[in-house]
Design a protein that fits this description.
Strand content: 15-25%
Largest sheet: 4 strands, antiparallel
Distance between the termini: 34 Å
Strand order of the largest sheet: 4-9-10-7
Number of domains: 2
CATH architecture of the largest domain: Alpha-Beta Barrel
Order of helices and strands: HEHHEEEEHEEHEHEEEE
CATH class of the largest domain: Alpha Beta
Radius of gyration: 17 Å
């Protein structure tokens, strides 16, 4: 991914997941932004993008963080919001085990409190250890945690799967985590 694409992707994450007001736009209740307003807002703030570049960012994003609606008039982030939006997730039965990537310095807290969503709407889990490893490595030497999601589900925890394949849950209690 070239530097400009990566920069625009990070800017989109900020706008569509956390703070659309940085470019003077609003998201609807489901997290959608009007593409025309987004492009104008970004350009007014010193960037130079058009719909083609926006389309390239969405299509080439390795984590498929963003999605257009059917006619490409709206765009939103698939998950990871700190804003209160309803991205219309459907409850699903998870696989038996999912994974979470972290680093050593957080393990004591996780052993006591489990995994919390922090400032986001959900805890993010992955069906692949490689993805969890990549997530953990952003903060140092990764540690991969296994989560007994089937047991959690049988005990009433609700799971959702985002459009880009990330599994989401409100929290993971320590008794469901294998260190």
């Amino acid at each position: 991914m070239n530097k400009n694409i990566k920069h625009i992707s990070k800017l989109l994450s900020l706008i569509l997941r956390h703070d659309p007001s940085v470019i003077g736009i609003q998201l609807d209740k489901n997290g959608w932004a009007e593409v025309s307003e987004l492009v104008i807002g970004i350009n007014k703030n010193g960037q130079n993008i058009d719909v083609d570049l926006l389309d390239e960012v969405v299509e080439t994003n390795d984590k498929k963080r963003f999605a257009f609606n059917e006619d490409k008039s709206k765009i939103r982030a698939n998950q990871g919001h700190s804003l209160s939006v309803d991205v219309e997730l459907k409850e699903m039965v998870p696989p038996d085990v999912l994974y979470h990537g972290t680093v050593q310095r957080f393990l004591d807290v996780i052993r006591k409190e489990g995994l919390k969503k922090g400032g986001r709407q959900h805890v993010h889990l992955s069906h692949e250890t490689d993805t969890a490893k990549n997530v953990g490595s952003r903060r140092g030497q990764p540690v991969i945690l296994s989560v007994d999601t089937m047991r959690m589900h049988s005990e009433g925890f609700k799971f959702y799967k985002s459009e880009n394949g990330v599994w989401l849950v409100d929290k993971v209690l320590p008794q469901f985590i294998s260190f």
